[in-house]
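Look at one such:
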Amino acid sequence: MIELRPVEPADLDKFFEYQQDPEANQMAGFRAKNPADRGVFDHYWQSLLNAPSVTVRTVTADGEVVGNVVVYRSEGVPELNYWTAKSHWGRGVTSAAVEQLLREFTERPIRARVVKDNVGSIKVLEKAGFRRIGEVQDFANARAAIVTEEILELA
């Protein structure tokens, strides 16, 4: 069973652990310059959790913390971001979490950005009704290269 709940302090330890996975960072493309820096991680998460305009939820699968979903404002438009532990990829966890968050967060349009070769993440968003509206190029720390990101929107 996939559930969303408010973030609890102990969840941050799991989020930090998941952030250490090199393959997951490569797939996501975007991460902190040094994902092992707990101080930077804690500062980032405290800013998210303290921002009144940000919606943050912990994702659990059968009671186990397996990721998070976040909606924040980027250039005035809500933007969806998520992270799922690699051990739970391909199990429908991310799709279920995104669908649940979209029922809770009903403002539209909402956007998401995904590295173009992250096919799994693009499928999750398209399944939820997002459509491609453009692309941008940006520097991805995890890849130490410029990557193309798809911009998707749910109207």
Observations:
- Strands lie at 2-5, 55-61, 64-74, 77-84, 110-115, 131-140, 145-154.
- The chain has five helices and seven strands.
